[in-house]
Amino acid sequence: MTLSSLSLPLAKLSVWPRGAFDWSLVVLLLLVGLAVSYLAYYRTQPSLSANRRWILRALRAGALLILLFLILEPVLFSRHSKQLPPSVLTLVDDSGSMTLKSRDGSTRLQDARSLAELAQRQLAGRREKPQVFDSEGSRRLHRDLQTGSKEGTNLPALLLSAAQSHLEDNLQAILLLSDGRSTDPELPSLRGLSVPVFTIAVGDSNGPGDLRLDRVHYPTVAYRGDEIEITAEAVVESANAGHASAILQGGAGPDSLSFSWPKGGGRIPLSFTVQADSLGMLRRVLRLTPLPSEALQANNAIEIGAEVLKDRLHIMLVESRPGWDFHFLRRRLAQDPRFEVDGVYRAVEGWQEAGSDSTWTPPATAAAAEGIDAWIILSLDDFARLSESAPGMIASVQDGAGLWVLFGEARGALPGSLPREASALLPVQLSSASRWKRARHRVRLLPAGITHPIFAFPGSVGDPVERLKQMPPLWDAVHGLMPKPDADVLLQAQDSDETTPLLVLGSSAKGTVACWTASPMWSWSFWRLGERQGEDVYQALVGNLIYYLAEGASRKRLQLILPRPVVARGEDALLRAVVLDARRQPDESSDLWIEWRREAGAAADSSGTVLGRALMQRAQSGPAGGRQLAIPPLPAGHYQFRLALEEDSGRIFSPWSSLSVDPYSVEYRHPGVDFAQLASIARATGGNVVQAENLGAWARNLPLSSKLKVSRSRSPLWASFKLFAPLLFLLSLEWMLRRRWGLV
């Protein structure tokens, strides 16, 4: 049973016990305390008068009552009320796009400030006398780099922040004056905003005319010798017909293209071709000649950058009798821009190159095999034969090339023995018990494979564990194999009776060697039977595995992945990285830092001094060992980034990678007014779109009302001096009177 509330209406206070108590026990303790107080002075020595005895009894009873009250742990609740006047916030967008001029020559920001002042005067003249607050903003809220730029707009984040700063006020409306341009691609939801937002679109179409670049596309990665195609559109907003030029600057010399448009403007496609003839960063600037009456020229040029890599990785396919695996792998690798593939098969004259009449001579030395980054041998018989006739293949693997041995067709017998050099290369050991077994083999991804970069499938493919469970079974696999002690088993094939290693990875000196122990690689043919289920898994696995093998000794422990070589000024850049440990396995525990600097030779920092460093966070998705860091907007210029791995033995650095920040700002990418965005904000919060000419009527008719604000406080009496002081006073007074009257 809980003690009832003791209300003090004059003070608007109430006292409650801290916990629940038995009422009968409280009453019993109260009666016992009164009885003890009465009997304590029933007889005294010396004898006291009745008045003195009742005084001492009252003091003793009061002390016991206060003590009993303290045992209940009372809490004092107070309530205060205050009348709050209504308040309205006028919020002006001050982003970069608000500096554009309207047809009358004033900027959008000037027009917005004038409208805000008009609204404030109209609101201040109302009978309710509302509080009117004013504020400006729209910049992104996170800017923690010392070089951070102030470009970028996030209107929903601005509204949420503004409402949060007025929680103690009776805020009943927000008037947002903006051109509606939010440049941040990830806008927060406004569902948590309880204040209606009324929007006013500020600005016209940008003046008499505008010419800008849009839909600029080009490959960000190319290989030496490639032709890079650059496509774009020139967007013209002009009442009159006219003509202009597009100029691609940089390289040996500028390349220009003239174009014209009819009355009213339109979109004109542009196209340029650039030859990637040198390694490194290829930089160009695409620029439009301005119109005579153009009001905004900040979006007439854009920087273009593509990373030109070394020659493609050279893959050699070898099989005596080309089967489905041979044709599929040759076609698959030919479609991947990272690879250049050659295939050879056995003919009457010896080894012959696929698709030509030329013969191929097996390499006798490592020098003869130079330029081959990975070997794919599609049967054990061919592997044994090449090991004897082409010792240069073994030497090239030991020198850093990759090797993938597929065990061939199930109808072929396993070699009784392999040459010693060939057997030493394989990460599995063949024995007399090794045999082909035909059964329905399901494939399972082992823990060593879950964290391996080979199974870092793209997001469109999905989770490798679940996707491999959905794959059709393998029919033929080799049983009786033993992985070598230093090998990693990534995939396992399992039938109803036993399991066998399917994909085994090992190393030989500097090279990486893989074995696939089923035949064929998967028991269906996409190109022949038209079965498409699982083809994306199959292709992702093949591409990752061959790329992993072909990197060989040059495989980097630290891999930095930039979003693209060039980002617009004011645009966030998400940097990603993959870190491997000393065994080239994904590293999930070490600290990985990223450092950045301006490129050497830049005017701002000719020495290339490191500007700063930040700790990369572990990525929630993507390959194992993945890290990421969102870099806030940087000023325009050329930068370089590198990774730094902290280890007990010291620090390991990756090479510097280039990233350019284009002077072309995201604020001017689309300079028009986004009426749809402003209407969406108003609808999401329960407000409306207000026309500038109706601003006075809106301010006069906006529903406003004061609000009674009730504040409550809680004070634990049992832990304060408010009850302990009277208890001490009563006990002290009783002791003094007992001593004065001779009882002590």
In short:
This protein is an alpha+beta fold. The chain is 23% helix and 35% strand.
What does this structure look like?
The chain has 744 residues and is an alpha+beta fold. The chain folds into five domains: 6-81 and 714-740, no CATH class; 86-205 and 672-705, Rossmann fold; 209-309, Sandwich (Immunoglobulin-like); 313-554, Rossmann fold (3-Layer(aba) Sandwich), CATH 3.40.50.880; 558-667, Macroglobulin (MG2) domain (Immunoglobulin-like), CATH 2.60.40. The chain is 23% helix and 35% strand. The protein is built from 15 helices and 39 strands. The strands form eight sheets. It has an eleven-stranded mixed beta sheet with strand order 18-17-16-19-20-27-26-25-22-23-28. α1 (23-40) runs antiparallel to α2 and α6 (380-389) packs across α7 (391-398). The protein is flat. The two termini are 42 Å apart.
Helical content (DSSP H or I, runs of 4+): 10-25%
- Helices and strands: which structural class? alpha+beta
Distance between the termini: 42 Å
CATH topology tier name of the largest domain? Rossmann fold
Oligomer: single chain
In CATH, the homologous superfamily of the largest domain goes by the name Class I glutamine amidotransferase (GATase) domain
Number of E-type strands: 39
Shape: flat
How many structural domains can be distinguished in the coordinates? 5
How large, in whole angstroms, is the Cα Rg? 40 Å
Percentage of residues in DSSP E strands? 25-35%
CATH class of the largest domain: Alpha Beta
> What is the number of helical segments per DSSP (H or I, 4+ residues)?
15
**Biggest sheet: strands side by side, in what order?**
18-17-16-19-20-27-26-25-22-23-28
Poorly predicted runs of 5 or more residues: 1-13, 141-149, 523-530, 602-606
Note the main sheet. 11 strands, mixed
pLDDT averaged residue by residue: 80
CATH architecture of the largest domain: 3-Layer(aba) Sandwich
